[in-house]
């Protein structure tokens, strides 16, 4: 247990954003899918699709994590439900009222102990982040489902396009015949 005024160490980690090549499309922004009938189609990559009306980017956002150990002074001690909490004032923030409230297991006597704990935190968080990285954007939908969905949309839009083309041709012909007959 630490006392008021004790110098202690707290570990945390910082994340830095970076972009890496999409592991699904290898940066091409598209993937090829073979349908059940053997037809191969190319669709936009869902792994690097940012959503909305933007197209796939070929890269995905990832974070790099770095352990940070902060030297602090104990400015408060509380016992709550059998657990001890400390209010810690960071060394770089001496003239401020900004402090951390942390559990007993997150406070250490030495820089080395805090750094080791920080490394455990970093590895755990990085592992969870990498699991999300390698997962599909919509896990519950397969690439085949996405392909079939987009193919249905294409067929529907092609049918609409043909319908409107035929209507435009009829309208153009009616317009010409009205002009020839003298009525507008």
- Over the alpha carbons, how many angstroms does the gyration radius reach? 31 Å
* Tally of helical runs: 2
What structural category do the secondary elements indicate?
alpha+beta
The secondary-structure element order is EEEEEEEHH
Topology, number of strands: 7
The low-confidence parts are none
Helix content: 25-40%
N→C terminal distance? 95 Å
Sheet-strand content, in percent, reads: 25-35%
Strand order of the largest sheet: 6-5-4-1-7
Shape: elongated
User: Largest sheet at a glance?
Assistant: 5 strands, antiparallel
Overall mean confidence score, pLDDT: 82
What key attributes describe this structure?
184 residues; alpha+beta; 2 helices; 33% strand
Describe the structure.
It is a single chain. This protein is α+β, with helices and mostly antiparallel strands. It has a domain at 7-22 and 58-140. The protein contains two helices and seven strands; from the N terminus they run βββββββαα. The protein has a five-stranded antiparallel β-sheet, covered by helices on one side. A two-stranded antiparallel sheet has the order 2-3. The longest helix has 38 residues, at 143-180.
